[in-house]
Amino acid sequence: MARRLTKALAGALLVAPLLLAGCSAGHDAAPRGPAAAPEAAPLLSGEQAKAGAYLAYEHQVAVRIAAERLDERLDALRNACTEERFGPCDLLGLERSSGAYPSAQVSVRTAPEAVDKLVALAAQDATLESRSSRAEDLAQAVGDTDQRLERLQRQRTLLQGYQARQDLAVADLLGVARELADVETQLADVQRDAERLRQRIATNRLTVDFSADRAPAGRLARLGEATGNLLDTLTEGTLQALQMLVYGLPFLVLLFPLALLLRALWRRAVRRRDPPPRP
Q: Which of 57, 59, 157, 266 has the most crowded Cβ, counting Cβ within 10 A?
């Protein structure tokens, strides 16, 4: 019995190091697995005003892109906005200029969560050169608009009460009707202003400026450019020569009589120095 117990203890002592080594290997190998790739940070995130703040955010982005891809990217950005692919979006403006250095500008008003997606689309296969964000505080404008709205609503309620009275003369009722129509018109204008302010606060304005390197020119274009430069140089040289001639004319007018006077004095001096030969 003692012999069997001794064998069992010896076997346990032999197996324990193997088990510990296996556990250690498992713990060491666990971190060696492939790590999760970090999510790419957005190029530019939209901003949402906090509760009680009346801030209208605007973003400006400058993108440099190849000239041959400018129109394609411009159409993609415009379609993404008009189709509201990333959320509510209004196209505010679009400009395109051609020439040796083509450029374009797109301005949209969209939801804050769509700003980073639109910027990523604009900067795809391009270089994001600069980005900036600013906020305009509309608290004063919102406060003034709310006060005007409340005042006009009180006036409308008062005039409607006068209009419902039965003891007013016809002339007074006509005057009340005119005043009520004027108040209704002003109230509609103020309500539109208030809605415009709320939209500016709830959305972000994004302006993307595209610039492209000089478009590649063919052989004929390069030949025409060289010829044009030659003609320009010839024209400028001719103009400079004419200008120098015009500038020099007054000096010529002054120097010509002086040259004649010097010539006459020189001839007289020569005659006095060399007497005429004797016969």
A: 59
Question: How far is the C-alpha of 237 from the C-alpha of 249, rounded, in Å?
Answer: 19
- Looking at 153, 184, 200, the residue that finishes a domain is 200
CA distance linking residue 66 with residue 16, whole number of Å: 67
pLDDT in tens, 144-165: 999 999 999 999 999 999 888 8
Quick one: pLDDT at residue 70? 92
- Do residue 153 and residue 177 come from a single domain? yes
pTM: 0.59
Domain region containing 154: 139-200
Whole-number pLDDT of residue 12:
46
Tokens 């040259």 correspond to what residue?
Answer: 259
How far apart CA 100 and CA 102 sit, in angstroms, is 6
Integer Cα distance of 243 and 17 in angstroms: 103
Boundary (domain end) residue, out of 137, 162, 188: 137
Calculate what percentage of the chain has a pLDDT beyond 90. 48
DSSP secondary structure code for residue 53 in this structure: -
